[in-house]
Write a structure and sequence with these properties.
34% of the residues lie in helices and 27% in strands. With 403 residues, the chain is α+β, with helices and mostly antiparallel strands.
Length: 403
């Protein structure tokens, strides 16, 4: 089977996906990217490559896929993990007559106001919102909803360009630089107070066949607002506990409403202080923030390769959740370059048997622009409470000094 994977750049994460797909039995892989073919040299010519100048351009995606098909044979799948690419990929598949997530469904996942409108219309709990085409419209929503409110782009990803405003003056200042317009509106949401989580689901032919859960501490928005915070996330072992019945039911209904067919989805949601839930948004792609790696560690399998098999063969064997797993993200204190790493010896001394993965910055390296920070430590253990204590211990002991 000849299949094509598309990614703007062959980043570390994208290369993991390329290698996972290329090593599946019976698969011949093509790659469309902005990067030159040299990035794939280590695969010894087993991967066909086509370079484009704008991978978000549907015509270029169609052209590249047809050129690869001309050289290597008929293409049977066209897929990718980059969120901004999901709609162009769906449009290219429609043009080429290839199976996969439809254009309508891809837009449902990508267009956040449309998504929330669909969810609310189908009785699913989510934050109140408005797509505001003007400053006055944004102000009217904020007055009706009450402050604080969250401001974000309509097609955001990973909490980027998302911020909270506390009053009308802050809102007007926030919108002054790039005032919203009918052609470039801004999305406003009520600020949901509660604990934030994620809910990951693998679906085959529209049927959810497996799920995972994650707890954030603190919320990603709070992390973005406070660059010094070393934050954590935990995948509890008890994913089938009755206390998650409401989000499992809501999550599955949401995927049905949005039109999910086959793939891995990442939903962000809140548990309010009164116990109720609110869906924030859903992405039709694998999760970031090391969640994919943590799911691999919690189940003792390779989720990236499992995702590739889902996308190519529509096959998945649900694994057993053997462990809880957690990530402690190490974010630099100060500004500049990494001067010193404090506390690592103590973490090794106290938690060595729990640690599965480590990424520490090199002294002298530039400060990271990612909300993940300068590095991370991943841990796992059969008991969730042990993992929760371990990640908190790591962020209390370790400090990345910048100068």
């Amino acid at each position: 089977m000849f299949v094509v994977f598309a990614a703007p750049l062959l980043s570390e994460n994208a290369m993991r996906m390329v290698e996972a797909a290329a090593t599946l039995y019976g698969v011949r892989l093509g790659v469309i990217t902005h990067d030159p073919a040299d990035a794939l040299r280590h695969l010894q010519g087993s991967v066909a490559h086509w370079r484009v100048s704008d991978i978000l351009n549907v015509d270029q995606l169609v052209w590249a896929t047809r050129e690869l098909a001309f050289r290597k044979g008929p293409v049977e799948r066209l897929f990718g993990a980059y969120e901004q690419l999901q709609v162009p990929l769906a449009m290219a598949r429609e043009s080429l007559g290839l199976p996969g997530l439809s254009v309508e469904a891809a837009i449902n996942f990508r267009d956040k106001p449309r998504m929330k409108t669909l969810l609310r219309a189908n009785g699913l709990p989510c934050a109140r919102h408005r797509l505001a085409p003007s400053v006055d419209d944004a102000a009217a929503f904020a007055e009706a909803s009450g402050f604080p409110v969250v401001v974000k782009p309509p097609a955001g990803a990973g909490a980027l360009q998302t911020y909270r405003v506390e009053n009308m003056d802050q809102l007007r200042r926030a919108l002054a630089g790039q005032p919203p317009s009918p052609s470039s509106p801004v999305l406003l949401e009520e600020f949901v107070r509660g604990r934030e989580h994620s809910f990951e689901t693998i679906s085959i032919d529209g049927k959810p066949v497996w799920h995972s859960l994650t707890h954030y501490e603190p919320t990603p928005l709070h992390v973005l607002e406070n660059p010094w915070i070393q934050w954590c996330l935990v995948l509890p072992r008890e994913v089938d506990d009755a206390k998650y019945d409401d989000i499992r039911a809501a999550g599955r209904k949401a995927l049905d409403v949005l039109g999910m067919t086959t793939g891995l989805t990442h939903m962000e949601w809140f548990r309010r202080s009164d116990g109720s839930i609110a869906i924030s948004e859903v992405a039709a792609r694998p999760p970031g923030a090391q969640i994919t790696t943590l799911m691999s560690r919690a189940h003792d399998f390779d989720l990236v390769q499992a995702w590739a098999r889902v996308m190519i063969f529509q096959e998945f064997d649900p694994p057993e959740r053997r462990y809880a797993a957690g990530a402690a993200f190490l974010r630099g204190q100060g500004h500049g370059r990494v001067k010193a790493i404090h506390g690592w010896n103590e973490v090794q001394r106290d938690l060595r048997e729990l640690i599965t993965d480590v990424k520490l910055p090199e002294t002298g390296s530039a400060q990271s622009s990612s909300y993940e920070g300068e590095g991370f430590v991943l841990v796992r253990h059969p008991e969730t409470r042990v993992v929760e204590a371990a990640v908190q211990r790591i962020v209390s002991l370790m400090r990345i000094e910048l100068a």
